[in-house]
Amino acid sequence: MTGQTGESASGASSSGQSADGTPAAASTGGQWPLWEVFVRSRRGLSHSHAGSLHAPDAEMALRNARDLYTRRAEGVSIWVVPSSAVTASSPDEKDPFFEPAGDKPYRHPTFYEIPEGVKHL
Amino acid sequence: MTTTAEPGAATAQAGPDRHTPEALQAEFDAAVAADTRIEPRDWMPDAYRSTLVRQMAQHAHSEIIGMQPEANWITRAPSLRRKAILMAKVQDEAGHGLYLYSATETLGVSRDELLDKLHAGRQRYSSIFNYPTLAWADVGAIGWLVDGAAITNQVPLCRCSYGPYARAMVRICKEESFHQRQGYELLLALSRGTDAQHAMAQDAVNRWWWPSLMMFGPPDDESAHSAQSMAWKIKRHSNDELRQRFVDICVPQAEILGLTLPDPDLRWNEERGHYDYGAIDWSEFQEVLRGNGPCNEQRLERRRAAHDNGSWVRDAAAAHAAKHRKAQA
Predict the structure, then answer these.
(1) CA gyration radius for chain B?
(2) Which of A28, A49, B160, B291 is the most exposed place for a label (fewest CB within 10 A)?
């Protein structure tokens, strides 16, 4: 399994990638590259990951994403990103990479004891 | 003493080795026990992975093969309203197939590979789609009973231990609810219509009832994969438990429809608090699985033809993309 790409791509390294990082052309017989789809459900909210799909290029990926992920007006804006362009933190999501935050409870407001009766704090 | 180039490397090596097979298995077991989801890049037992690939691929294949029996009636829908509804439903089935193929790809297989296996008859789809849609009322019976059974099966899958499968199911279940309601409404209109319409609705229900009960799979004591799938929390309820739930839901719904279910043994059991139902003819189920259902050949042939006939479109799209990439470079 590759550890460098996004979730959907993790198993589909066969979708190929050219040396310059753009998704490989799906010439006859080859599988179209994989794209990650992010949808903004309404103005004021950020785009969030909706899923993935195969498409030959960015324009087709956008059209397919509209048909696949917004059939019921679930979005007002869509991003598509080649899955191969996603760099992920680690192949194993319980990595020491996140350990530095584990022992710092003082970063949370609940760490501090405040006498009863203190208001607006 | 060696110096490490990256500060993080020292911490990574500290502590007991988390990468022995026993440690990985223990970590996986603990995650399943604690009801946390398994995600694509986590270590997982090979058998868990292959069970998921088998089940999810079959599920994806069922969605796209399932487009055929209903698409059969699009051109003959009795009104523009019904036609628009049916087209939206069939399009949803294609979408569900795509969600599930993507989710399956996270396990390290490609969609092309899965489609090849479907076309070669090496992976299955739900045998319910090997029955024909003989009349317009069948569209209603499929929505009410077939999609109803599918929902009963799928709602617990939203809590399946494998994250991408569970997420796909959440989306699918939301959309399936429209499928079931349009079917029920369609049958209700026919049932309350002319005598001929009522008879057509009753005939469709008579033909789809038993195959729908078979959708839950063999009885618990004969189900090959059930126990392990339950232990892995891929499956949350047994086949018989879900089948019973479905029967209990359908009986009162049939009463309101003014239609009967074709089972003389169907009656309320006060003691159990459930409806008893008659024996299912599992020999029919086995025959259809073996490829001897009414439409097995037709469905696969149609699927292969659709795939082959679409190849020029895929090639053209790929050629277009390659040309534009070259122009930009």
Answers:
(1) 23
(2) A28
Burial of B64 (0-12, 13-18, 19+ CB in 10 A): buried
H or E element, residue B177: helix B163-191
Tokens of B190: 């026919």
Identify the CATH number of the domain defined by range A32-85. 3.10.20.520
Which of A2, A18, A27, A62 has the highest number of chain B CBs within 10 A, making it the mutation to test binding with B?
Answer: A27
Write b or e for each residue in A41-64: b if 16 or more Cβ atoms lie within 10 A of its Cβ, otherwise e: beeeeeeeebbbbbbbbbebbeeb
Of B94, B96, B92, B191, the closest CA to residue B140 belongs to B191
**Minimal Cβ distance to A7: which of B27, B40, B324:** B40
pTM over 0.90? The answer is: no
Give the SS3 label for residue B277: coil
CA distance B4 to B14: 13
Nearest CA in chain A to B101: A53
How many of the other CB atoms lie within 10 Å of CB of B133?
21
| Alpha carbon of B50: minimum distance to chain A alpha carbons (Å) | 13
pLDDT digits (tens, 9 = 90+) for A16-62: 333 333 344 333 346 899 999 999 999 999 999 999 999 999 999 99
The shortest CB-CB distance from A91 to any of B41, B318, B324 is to B41
- State the Cα torsion A82-A83-A85-A87 to the nearest 10°: 160
**B230-270 pLDDT per residue, tens:** 999 999 999 999 999 999 999 999 999 999 999 999 999 99
Could you give the CA distance from residue B169 to residue B99 in angstroms, rounded to a whole number?
9
ipTM beyond cut 0.90: no
Q: Looking at the DSSP assignment, which residues form a beta bridge with residue A53? A: A35
The DSSP code sequence of A73-111 is S--SEEEEEEGGG---S-SSTT-GGGGGGTT-GGGSGGG
